[in-house]
Amino acid sequence: MIGSGLVLLMGIALALVSMTTVVAEDLKHAMELEPQVSLGVKEPLVLDLDQLPPYLVADESLGMLHHRALQGQVVHVAKEGVRGLFETRAVRTPKGDLLLMFPEGNHYAAGAGKVNDLLAYRSSDNGHTWKGPRVAFDIDYSQHGFIPLIPKGSHRIYAFGTQPIPSEYSREKGKFENTPIGFRWSDDDGYAWSKATLIKPVNDPGFLGMSVTRMTETASGAWLLGSHAADWSKQPLETHQYVLRSEDKGRSWELLPGVRPDGWFVPGFKRMDEGRPIWLQGSEVLFMVRTPAGLIWTARSVDDGKSWSEPKPSSLVHPDAPPMVFHLSDRKTLITLFHNRHAGTQYTGLSGTMDGMKDRSEIWVALSADGGRHWSEPRFLFANATRPNPDKNGWFNHQVSYLDAVIDDGMIHIFCPHLWNRAVYLSIQESDLDKLPTKEMLRSALGN
Fold first, then answer.
1. Is 224 in contact with 277 (CB distance < 8 Å)?
2. Number of separate helices (H) and strands (E) present in the chain
3. Which residues contact 30 (CB under 8 A, 6 or more apart)?
4. What span, in angstroms and rounded, lies between the C-alpha atoms of 281 and 332?
5. DSSP single-letter state for residue 179
6. Which end of the chain is more exposed for a tag (fewer CB within 10 A), N or C?
7. How far apart are CA 63 and CA 67, in angstroms?
8. Residue 237, exposed/middle/buried by CB under 10 A (0-12, 13-18, 19+)?
9. 80-93 residue pLDDT tens
């Protein structure tokens, strides 16, 4: 299937937007903050921004309430006249840069034609300054996001993701989000990219879905990528979750746990999507997945992703939003960035007016030393603190979800599509994680 070969794009300067250096001060647009931020739904913690504990900061430049150990800057603000920007994804390139990509414009499923561009920024000084934007792929259709993979022992960067090529899928009957899944690669540190290779699983060659969450490579070299298929013609929306698996470097793929429509879903909701596989050790892989049931669900494989346990609820409280889990620098400890709140009163199949959108407004941290079987007590990291825009709905007004992270050398680099309008870069040392407050520590500091 990899017959297209790498097409090195000559004359990159002519095909791509010119790159400029972005310094933090260039994009420090002060945000109007709410006077109070409420954390949680049940017995909420109400923090007055002018009477905060000394370890918390009300940051007008970021529009966030965050722990003092967390540093940040705005890398990009969506240009006027577009709907916004979407999933921020990043990778440490083989030459050591941080490469950040995200779509700007409209969501890929909003139209059959080209409604966005995938923009790229690059930092060669570990996140202090950024160069960009440039158009990552000079193509005539939209993008959903950038799912990076650098195989072990390789200097090739792969870019996996949803490929809404108009001629390759139909937008009829509520299936407008389901498109081919495919990948490109770069052999020059992420400047020039091949054409897209589309994934056609041997057991279900016509598979269409969407993929925008992180993938993984196992010790044996197997590649595992989550993908779900949605049916918006059903009221409410229905989704089925799958895993795409390749053990020959992307030449062939299998769809698991079986061919359509035998994907996973939560009974009662008929929903499960945006699954994230992460290799643990040996032949063990953890799969964390989004559900509308108020908890992240998990499945587990002990045979390199060939077969899986039935998904079941974890202890992680989380709304209808994707899991965000990574390895710390030791490559053994898992860290999850999660919302730790769930209203659960207005599930209508995912709309911008449902109260659950506010559940995407805060980020907590938990660690696991046993492959996600048990998680530490949640600790608060940051929350949106901006005053809602009356012209926009909750999907925009509370958003700090869909985070990505690059974690190495004791540093956690976080990338956030804040308010679906600003690409924000945040960083915190792993050694500072134990300084973050638990809910009881916050309650005590507030005198509650």
1. yes
2. 3, 30
3. 60, 61
4. 8
5. B
6. C
7. 13
8. buried
9. 999 999 999 999 99
Q: How would DSSP label each residue in 59-113? A: ETTTTEEEETT-EEEEEEEPPTTS-EE---EEEE-TTS-EEEEEEEES-GGG-SS
Tokens 């009300």, located at residue: 58
CA dihedral 301, 302, 304, 310 (to 10 degrees): -20
Q: Are 243 and 277 in contact (CB under 8 A)?
A: yes
Q: What is the token pair recorded at 59?
A: 């940051």
Of 203, 324, 331, which Cα lies nearest the Cα of 262? 203
Alpha-carbon span 395 to 421, nearest angstrom: 11
pLDDT at 345: 74
CA atoms within 13 A on the CB side of 368: 19
- Please tell me the pTM assigned to this model: 0.94
Nearest to residue 107, comparing CAs of 180, 162, 174? 162
- Closest-CA residue to 193 (of 11, 6, 17): 6
Place of tokens 């722990």: 67
* Per-residue pLDDT reduced to its tens digit, 289-338: 999 999 999 999 999 999 999 999 999 999 999 999 999 999 999 999 99
C-alpha to C-alpha distance for 257 and 242, rounded to whole angstroms? 6
Spatial separation of the C-alpha atoms in residues 279 and 220, rounded to whole Å: 11
The length of the chain, given as a count of residues: 448
Tokens representing 444 are 């005590």
| AA letter at 115 | V
> For the ranges 157-161, 236-240, 412-416, which has the lowest average pLDDT?
236-240
State both tokens at 154: 């390789």
Q: Is 56 helix (H, G, I), strand (E, B) or coil?
A: strand
